[in-house]
Amino acid sequence: MSDFDNDCAWPRRLLHLPTMTSVQWKPGNYYGKDREPRYIAISYTWGRWRLKGATHPDVKGLAVHGVAWEMPRVDPDHFTMGEMENVLRSALKLSMEIEGFDNPKEPLSPINYIWLDVACIYQTRNSAEMAMEVGRQAKIFKGATQTFAWLTKLSRQDYVTQAERHLEQATPTRAEAKNGLDKVRRRLDIKRREIEQLSLDPWFSSLWTLQEAYLCPQAIFITRQGELLSQSDIDNPAKDPMLLSYFIDYCDHVMTIVTSHEKKPQTIEPNDKYLILLKSSIERSGMIGLRSTLPITLLGAARHRTTSREKDRVYGIMQVFNFRLGKARPGYDPNGDPSLQELEDELGRELLAQEPIMSQMHVFENLPQVGKGWRISQDSQPTRRLHLVNQTYSEGKSVFEGMLVKAQLSTITLNGVNWGHFSGKTCKFSKLVEIWDSDKGWGGGIIDLDGAEHWTAVHGPDLARKEAIAFSQHHPHAVVLLLGLAEKQASTKSSSMPVGLLLVPFSGQSGVSENLDVWQRAGVCQWWTSYEPNSGSEVGGTLEGESRDWILSAGAFG
Question: Where is the Heterokaryon incompatibility domain (predicted)?
Fold first, then answer.
């Protein structure tokens, strides 16, 4: 398709369901005679069940006209082609019903097109066209009128029956009512089963559906039989279909309960089996990474997902950043094959260049390799400490779009290892803590630490103050690199919250560089500034990154 514009928002192909024909894009965004038709997208998993060679020779692929590739065959235990075609037709019908309830007075044009990967992406592995279209899935899913998440192991009746059973079992027995521990365990166990009722479906273990889930939190669950799920047993689920976002919010709510028990063990201990099992179920579902609206948390969530190729841990999420990396990058040598580490470095470099503040808004669950603390990894987790950094507003814009970038981040090669490089203002952390701990600190600051020094997310102002003091005493030479702060509004009295990168001197400095200061990333921090932007005080200037306590610095970090 030589005339296709890779930067356009439309797919290379759409499946015209009435004729089961894969229709190519034409200039002007035409598909056949239809210009810019509405379409729905299907998010599902099938790669692990793909049949190869002579296995099940009687099983055929989906019958689609207009394709030049062999349609993949799928193990019928996962789903049959008849079931797939039924789901496609049901999805179109249900989409119109849902829209009818949402907009009862608006005339709606019919939807005849579906975006389905096997019918709309060239299925020859490692082909240039396949790589390019895989790199455009963010645009494709965002352009869909609706997205359906196809669960292949759950029926509507099974879901309703299990939900009713969980409700009945939520009431403790007389013995449990007298025993606080048993009562808490029962509740935790029911919550685990409620989560696993959905999360054990293969859709929740696929790497590719993870990025689709991030792109489409309003995706609608549809069962193997083409039925909608709903949160209540109503006659027509189209009135109130279950959305992925409902499940994401529920998992986040339950995780808050878990961390509360971990932080302040009263009735139940943090190492209790029921608490551990519940936390494990939430983490495996990948929903916590989705609750954060920052895409950088997806690489950490991806470690709980299954993929046949490790490199797909980057390829499978790059679309949410609007990046095309590795083989999907325009002009890349089709015979090239970058390693996973090369892809992770490339992803990290792009983030440093395009989103310097956001690139650091995470914490490492385990300390990264030497020199690799500058980029996100599979150990990256969303910070549950810093205010607002995980939130979006106004059509998905992040809080960082209203901040001034105060540091320049890039990479530098030292002894054959790619390190991060910064240029910007730094301040001794002890100086900030001194202000935070005084009555002039206007609310103090918050730190969120990497690795072994990572503190629990559940905390209060007093504990936050103690943590900052303790870290300052343990690391007297630590500095804060000012990453960003809100643009000043001279006419208004407001308090902003700058964000910074917490750095400590790297103990192996001499073995890395003799000419450049080398630092180890320790975490991230945030603090309140003065309510009087033009107060002119030394303390106010320090909090706003403007006093002589801040010096221009450059160095490597990792």
Answer: 39-212
